[in-house]
Amino acid sequence: MILDDIVADKKIRLAEQKAKTGEDEMKRLAAAYRGNGHSFYEALKKPGLSIIGEFKKASPSLGDIPQKMDLMERIKEYNASVDAISCLTEEDHFHGNVGYLKEIRGKSELPILRKDFMIDEYQFYEAKTIGADAVLLIAAILDDAQMKGFYKLARSLGLDALVEVHDEEEMERALKLDARIIGVNNRNLRDFTISLDNTKRLRGMAGADKVFVAESGIVTDDDVLTLKEYQVDAFLIGRAFMEADNPKELAKHWKAL
Ligand SMILES: O=C(O)c1ccccc1NCC(=O)[C@H](O)[C@H](O)COP(=O)(O)O
Questions:
Q1: Which of 58, 132, 227, 253 ranks highest by number of CB atoms within 10 Å?
Q2: Ligand 1-lining residues (CB < 6 angstroms)
């Protein structure tokens, strides 16, 4: 399965990174980081639909994604239309980089989600040093002890955690964790098929006190209207914005639907 390959490659990258910047040094840098603090949770929790606009250059399901505009231009579009930004920092399968997130941080006051495969404490300290406000915890690649430890670490660093689930069993685990932001991924990570029914099925399991995010496969007006009916707090949108000539107008249009 693709997740196994991604995690295996991530472990190799981590070993290389730690050889360059040791764990103690990364912790020191995280403690020394002075940022403005942008609340991912508050940005999604506020009344009305919130949109997280993603920046990605490639993905396993899409391959290389043609870039309609440079990153600077995209940041301007997102600054004028969305509520938070998601930046892929995974190198091997999404062609992401922590450098992109740093660039976004320098040019945006929106909260930023570090979209990566978080499997090691080191990445949380690094997320802090690059100016991220939130990290992704994917239930499918973490056991309960890891989820609990990483969630606690993220919060202790002042980072929010978007806990991503795909099915009922993973949702139960996210609820046991008492995660305050839960995302349902509509993409089946085995065959990459999309089903918005995932959000429909799982929405009821999370109470109204949770910030509920619908992730992936949101491309058409119908998708947006369907998901709005399910009372989600926020959408995470990658492909549609990457393919749009004018992501700002698209985000505004979808909010107004
Ligand atoms: O997008 C993939 O192919 C993928 C494969 C394996 C693990 C994760 C994957 N995507 C990460 C994401 O969560 C999406 O980038 C994000 O939800 C936005 O999705 P979309 O709007 O469909 O681009």
A1: 132
A2: 2, 54, 56, 59-61, 185, 187, 189, 192, 215-218, 236-240
